[in-house]
Design goal:
Strand content: 15-25%
Largest sheet: 7 strands, antiparallel
Bound molecules: iron/sulfur cluster
Distance between the termini: 26 Å
Strand order of the largest sheet: 3-2-4-1-10-9-11
Number of strands: 23
Helix content: 25-40%
Number of domains: 2
């Protein structure tokens, strides 16, 4: 489980189960300048997508390819890299990764990017998402002699690319052949000796964007990473698109694997929770989506109250939306301790302190004697919600009405998040009234499932963890090693 984050209470929820995924960032400076610090700041802006490990690989496109350098480690970006280590990473093309393990365990070997020596030189790869056919591909490759050094499905992708490269005229052709074997979620950045390649799976589960800063081209999970390095947003990589970036041809696009829009399945939870509030995904501003979610909650599940508060961070925008729609004043009820680094010692069950309390405190003056509407982005197992409701009540609130800016989680996710198995989900086999009772709120309501498409202006989405309608058949055996429900 992740204990490395400093981003707030949503991480605390993660201790009881809900994890994010990964972030990828790649850059190529056509003028030949070193790129490592740009990748570093890009990853820093994507830290919310994964806090267990991170890494950067760089290469010099005009130097011998043996000069490819890789540094990775366990922990946050600013814990793993120093000024010195960045200075050692010389090269004008690079790829970086921040990881939260949704497939494969949390170990140094499984940290990315992966760097592979193969017939045409060196290949760097960073992957966000989960494959649903990784196990069968891994078995198939092992039968033909492949030896795997990690337990992550990303290594399967790297092998497939390397194998296809032998019979392909270009690395892009090899990538295209390889990704046609993959089923599941993948936003990939591939660094070849002289090309940077971005791929988004045909369902478009995870985001991927293109940016540019003078003569430097960038691929990144989210637009917030472009802002961090002062790059302008060029466009989203389309679901199913392969983009190849090189000084000879700029950005080349292959859209032959794209599906019709109604088959695309963007993860709706990116908009609700995973992505940073200031990012745009496929033209939709994440902040606006969250404001809308709050407005819908106020329309569909109104309540008489004196104050609306959000559980930081992703609950805040939805709380503002609720306030705007209902006219109930918006305020802050929480102060969080953001200094939770890798060495944070989680309180034991026997301790009187809880992880929630040491990371988050209630502003007593703000809530005392008030009827409070508290907005959170989700309830996974319910343990965190239970504690937060309790904290607000102990601080003197008269009533606590919980509103959740997503529908109840009823099904696990196989596409790059660790929304867990059904038996662990509080909403599975329970009524809303049962859940309300468990968390101790005075009332409880969730966002209605038919509101989800409206959060992203009708774009085609995945909502499988709420509906059980999977855009791709779930694996019989989970890559995480668990059996899935039949
Ligand atoms: S199942 Fe849920 S969390 Fe997973 S990709 Fe679909 S919407 Fe996102």
């Amino acid at each position: 489980m992740n204990t490395n984050s400093n981003i707030g209470i949503n991480t605390t929820e993660r201790e009881s189960g809900l994890g994010e995924e990964c972030g990828v960032f790649g850059a190529y400076d056509f003028d030949g300048a070193d790129i490592a610090s740009t990748v570093y700041y890009g990853l820093f802006a994507l830290q919310h997508r994964g806090q267990e490990s991170c890494g950067i690989a760089v290469s010099g496109t005009s130097r011998p390819i043996e000069n490819t350098k890789l540094k990775k480690g366990m922990g946050l970006v600013n814990e793993v890299f120093t000024e010195e280590s960045l200075n050692d990473l010389k090269g004008d093309i690079g790829v970086g990764h921040v990881r939260y393990s949704t497939a494969g365990s949390s170990t140094y070997e499984n940290a990315q990017p992966l760097v592979l020596n193969y017939i045409k030189g060196i290949l760097g790869l960073a992957h966000n998402g989960n494959l649903v056919n990784a196990l069968s591909l891994r078995k198939e490759l092992s039968m033909t002699g492949a030896i795997f050094q990690t337990t992550i499905d990303s290594e399967v992708i790297a092998y497939l690319i390397a194998r296809e490269r032998i019979n392909s005229a270009t690395v892009t052709e090899a990538v295209k052949k390889a990704v046609q074997r993959l089923e599941g979620a993948f936003s990939l950045i591939v660094m070849s000796p002289r090309k940077l390649i971005g791929v988004r799976d045909p369902h478009g589960f995870r985001p991927l964007v293109i940016g540019k800063r003078e003569n430097t081209y960038i691929l990144a999970s989210e637009t917030c990473a472009l802002d961090a390095v002062n790059a302008e947003f060029v466009r989203d990589v389309l679901p199913g698109e392969i983009v190849t970036i090189s000084p000879e041809n700029g950005i080349e696009s292959d859209k032959s694997l794209c599906l019709p829009e109604d088959k695309v399945a963007r993860c709706i939870f990116e908009y609700i929770y995973f992505a940073r509030t200031d990012s745009y995904i496929d033209g939709i501003n994440v902040y606006e989506s969250r404001i809308k979610a709050g407005k819908f909650l106020a329309m569909d599940s109104p309540v008489e109250a004196d104050l609306v508060v959000g559980v930081p961070e992703s609950g805040n925008a939805a709380a503002l939306g609720f306030s705007l729609e209902s006219g109930i004043p918006y305020g802050n009820a929480f102060v969080k301790n953001g200094y939770v680094g890798r060495t944070f010692i989680k309180p034991k069950q026997s301790n009187r302190e809880s992880s929630v309390q040491v990371k988050l405190n209630v502003l007593k003056e703000a809530v005392r004697g008030k009827r409070v509407v508290m907005i959170d982005d989700s309830i996974v197992r319910g343990t965190t919600s239970d504690r937060i409701v309790n904290m607000i009540k102990e601080a003197g609130a008269k009533e606590v009405h919980m509103r959740v800016s997503s529908p109840p989680f009823l099904w696990p996710c196989y596409f790059g998040t660790d929304v867990p198995g059904r038996e662990e989900l509080i909403a599975y086999n329970r009524s809303i009234e049962d859940i309300r009772n468990i968390i101790g709120a005075d009332s409880l309501a969730y966002l209605k499932i038919d509101r989800l498409p409206q959060l992203c202006d009708g774009l085609s989405i995945c909502n499988a963890c709420f509906s059980g309608k999977y855009p791709i058949a779930p694996p019989k055996e989970d890559i995480r090693g668990e059996r899935t429900e039949d």
